[in-house]
């Protein structure tokens, strides 16, 4: 019975495809999101940046060079200029022509129901009103959205502008040189939870620390976990969600008897 309930709780852990199914498809493209949905991911994470013409582009870096081979600063470019680039070939020739999606194009890939997008806001607070306007059309599907951000002001502003969408504060070892009181960090933002870097892997977070967050009624997610043993260990520690480049590996790790 104990084994059965443990495996039931492990399979309840939300598997989040980091930048889509980014180990197989070009990160932050509709191809990567579709593959993740098809392959059973519960959620996709994406990165968003404000363009020069006040649109929202989905890519990780401030410069498009790494994923398109063309140096182009997002903040100095229009969405149309960015969308003319090839964001697929760098990963594999079969993805040639895959473009940098807009926020709307990315969201449109998500099936109706319970799957979610974790929207990482990479721009500063100036993007919040734009994001709030675009997401206002998604009110009926608010449960399928979650905003994540490292920036305290961005997280706070998002929670104020979009109270019907969950917000998780992002936390990383780079940002916090030593362990901090995570419950305070979340409360400080008035966030619904925390998305932390490889929580449990480097700082050796204990079950008690996870419990403290959960007991406070907050959610705990971790990123980016790419080894089956780590997926299993973090799930057993009690995290709510695991962000990974390989959602199939994560699913198999959680379902392995
Ligand atoms: O899920 C959080 C994670 O995506 C933050 O790091 O660099 O991949 O955006 P990064
Ligand atoms: Ca991200």
UniProtKB/TrEMBL annotation:
The keyword Signal applies. Residues 13-254 form the GP-PDE domain. It comes from Prosthecobacter fusiformis. This is Glycerophosphoryl diester phosphodiesterase. It comes from the Bacteria. GO terms for molecular function: phosphoric diester hydrolase activity. Keywords: Signal. GO terms for biological process: lipid metabolic process. Residues 1-12 form the signal peptide. The keyword Signal applies.
């Amino acid at each position: 019975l104990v084994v059965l309930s443990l495996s039931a709780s492990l399979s309840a852990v939300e598997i989040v495809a980091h930048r889509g199914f980014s180990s197989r498809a070009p990160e932050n493209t509709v191809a990567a999101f579709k593959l993740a949905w098809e392959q059973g991911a519960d959620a996709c994470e994406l990165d968003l940046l404000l363009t020069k013409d006040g649109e929202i582009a989905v890519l990780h870096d401030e410069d498009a060079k790494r994923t398109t081979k063309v140096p182009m600063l997002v903040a100095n470019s229009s969405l149309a200029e960015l969308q003319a680039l090839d964001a697929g070939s760098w990963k594999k020739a079969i993805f040639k022509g895959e473009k940098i999606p807009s926020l709307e194009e990315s969201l449109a890939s998500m099936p109706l129901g319970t799957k979610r997008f974790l929207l990482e806001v990479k721009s500063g607070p100036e993007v919040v009103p734009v994001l709030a306007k675009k997401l206002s059309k998604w009110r009926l599907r608010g449960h399928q959205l979650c905003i994540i951000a490292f920036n305290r002001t961005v997280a706070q502003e998002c929670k104020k502008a979009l109270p019907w969408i969950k917000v998780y504060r992002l936390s990383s070892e780079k940002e916090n040189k030593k362990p901090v009181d995570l419950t305070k960090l979340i409360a400080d933002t008035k966030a619904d939870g925390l998305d932390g870097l490889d929580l449990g892997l480097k700082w050796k977070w204990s079950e008690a620390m996870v419990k403290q967050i959960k007991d406070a009624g907050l959610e705990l997610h971790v990123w980016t976990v790419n080894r089956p043993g780590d997926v299993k260990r973090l799930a057993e520690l009690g995290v709510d969600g695991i962000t990974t480049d390989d959602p199939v590996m994560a699913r198999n790790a959680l379902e392995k008897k």
